[in-house]
Design brief:
Number of domains: 2
Shape: rod-shaped
CATH topology of the largest domain: Fumarylacetoacetate hydrolase, domain 2
Strand content: 15-25%
CATH architecture of the largest domain: Alpha-Beta Complex
Distance between the termini: 65 Å
CATH class of the largest domain: Alpha Beta
Low-confidence stretches: none
Largest sheet: 6 strands, mixed
């Protein structure tokens, strides 16, 4: 009994303070209710053991709804936790000391119970069932309360993180960004200008943080650790229906819509990483490096498979191609990517850039235009302080 009481105390002292009086359900006792009842019933049932031994002709015990039992858990929200734990410890210590003095013959003494369910029982019945076992049941209830509390009342957060970006849509809604996937070298001419043979490479992907997404009209800071910051104009696909192992024939069912986009790149860091066989993260996953225009629902514009894609810097055309020039079409890209990851609502896929990529400097204004979509414009600002 003493060890169970110690387990109860350790459990209570390690739980959040507001869990002590938290009520899982109207009919379920709080942790404090359990503690107050323990502090009351341990000395009560110890006294009943003594009575059963010394006065076996008298009835012992009480019913489940006796007033003294119910009073033990009345207004427990007003009670002090430290004093209740102290009362429980003292009660258990006295009870244990008293019970250890009893002989087997004394514990075998039978006396009638006031509760008709129990009838004539030996004093050991009170010890085993109404003290030891009862105490363990309360420990189990306290542990269940704590587990349920942790499920329903999560731990308080240390700080608040910013919400994921919202991309405006042409029909007046907001598309919450979950993840950003990008296709590498998806236009043959661009693959060749980057020194690669497009005919020998299946599509490959890299990822960016959602927070790299910024809206059209933004001024983005020239990033640190680069002297060769490049633009890459792209068609962006927005996923509106989750799925994995999607077939090309069913791919369009998962598309919410399309937008113009930019994959801004620290080109010098990318080339260094490529030469050393290292990932592109520091070159691609850059703050504000994924500008995006207004999203147009496919339900309104269809699925663009051809159409001009152009990029200008301060009005001068730098990239000029057609969507039909993509090596891997949008359905193919979705099919490949969905074999690697389960695509989810909120995912964006930047589908690759045509030839003509090049550097920009602070003050440059970039515009990306794709037939049927709203243009994207950004300005390159000075390095962030």
């Amino acid at each position: 009994m003493r060890s169970t009481a110690e387990d109860i105390q350790a459990e209570v002292q390690s739980m959040p303070r507001d869990c002590i009086r938290w009520k899982p359900a109207p009919e379920v006792w709080t942790v404090m209710d359990n503690l107050c009842h323990i502090a009351e019933f341990v000395p009560y049932w110890t006294h009943q053991v003594s009575q059963a031994i010394t006065s076996p002709e008298q009835e012992w015990g009480r019913t489940h709804h006796d007033p003294d039992r119910l009073a033990a858990v009345a207004e427990t929200h007003l009670r002090d936790l430290a004093s209740v734990l102290r009362d429980m410890q003292e009660g258990v210590a006295k009870s244990t000391a008293a019970l250890e003095q009893l002989t087997p013959d004394q514990l075998a003494t039978k006396a009638p119970s006031r509760n008709p369910r129990w009838g004539l029982q030996p004093a050991s019945f009170i010890v085993d069932n109404l003290l030891v076992t009862h105490l363990r049941k309360h420990l189990s209830q306290i542990q269940r309360n704590r587990a349920q509390y942790q499920q329903e009342r999560p731990l308080p957060e240390l700080f608040t993180l910013p919400s994921p970006p919202l991309v405006p849509t042409a029909d007046g809604n907001a598309f919450r960004v979950r993840r950003v996937f990008c296709v590498g070298r998806n236009y043959a001419a661009h693959a060749r200008e980057m020194g690669r043979d497009p005919d020998r490479e299946p599509p490959f992907f890299f990822t960016k943080w959602a927070e790299t997404v910024v809206p059209s009209g933004s001024t983005i800071a020239y990033p640190s650790e680069t002297g060769n910051f490049h633009y890459e104009g792209e068609l962006v696909v927005a996923i509106g229906k989750a799925g994995a192992n999607i077939s090309p024939a069913n791919a369009y069912e998962h598309v919410y819509g399309y937008a113009t986009g930019l994959d801004m790149t620290r080109r010098d860091l990318q080339l260094q990483a490529r030469e050393q066989g290292r990932p592109w993260d520091t070159a691609k996953n850059v703050a504000q490096s994924s500008p995006i225009g207004t999203l147009h629902p496919a339900s309104g514009i269809g699925h663009p498979e051809r159409g001009r894609i152009t990029l200008t810097v301060d009005g001068e055309v730098k990239q000029n191609a057609d969507l039909i020039d993509m090596i891997w079409s949008v359905p193919d890209v979705i099919a490949f990517l969905s074999r690697l990851y389960r695509l989810e609502q909120g995912d964006l896929i930047y589908t690759g850039t045509p030839a003509g990529v090049g550097p920009v400097v602070p003050g440059n204004k970039i515009e990306v235009a794709i037939d049927g979509l709203e243009s994207l414009t950004i300005t390159i600002g000075p390095p962030a302080a």
